[in-house]
């Protein structure tokens, strides 16, 4: 069972993520975050060093979750692995467009060490996709596959711009069909 401190940390992280996504990192004060969870702003310092630490933990968690999801597909046959990668990333994007928006807008506001860790995790996640695609398209150059993966991430991560226009299940289906089409890469 989670401890009260862990629950409070999660509550603070969720509130901060929502506020940062809605108003931008610089548009949110520590007092705003405290008020969102029913405590004073300074009370947050019992859980986090400051706003930058909050942002760092939020964005590190996003990258870690996706990376773990990708790594979990390594033992699957390539077609199943691709389906798992697509459904996992699409589900995250459809369910959490505010976190995608936050990542796009605020990565540069993270402490440098955290930013490097996020980038490393992202590179490893991309390579999980490239490895699966290499198995499915053995004649395609890795650079082409990597470019296709980045293009698909751009497609899937466009959800903040269209959030609410389609029901989530329709959006997920549309994104999957489009992503699969984009991933049909050839060696030429």
Structural class designation: mainly alpha
Topology, number of strands: 0
Radius of gyration: 18 Å
CATH topology: Tetracycline Repressor, domain 2
| Superfamily (CATH H level) name | Tetracycline Repressor, domain 2
Strand content: under 5%
- Envelope shape: elongated
Indicate how many domains the architecture comprises. Answer: 1
Distance between the termini: 54 Å
Secondary structure topology:
Layout: H1 4-23, H2 30-37, H3 51-71, H4 78-95, H5 97-106, H6 112-136, H7 142-156, H8 159-162, H9 168-182
Helix pairs in contact: 1-2, 1-3, 1-5, 3-6, 4-6, 4-9, 6-7, 7-9
Please provide a written account of the structure:
The protein is mostly helical. The chain has a single domain, classed as Tetracycline Repressor, domain 2. 72% of the residues lie in helices and 0% in strands.
In brief, what are we looking at here?
The protein is mostly helical.
Search tags:
Tetracycline Repressor, domain 2, 72% helix, mainly alpha, single chain, 188 residues, elongated
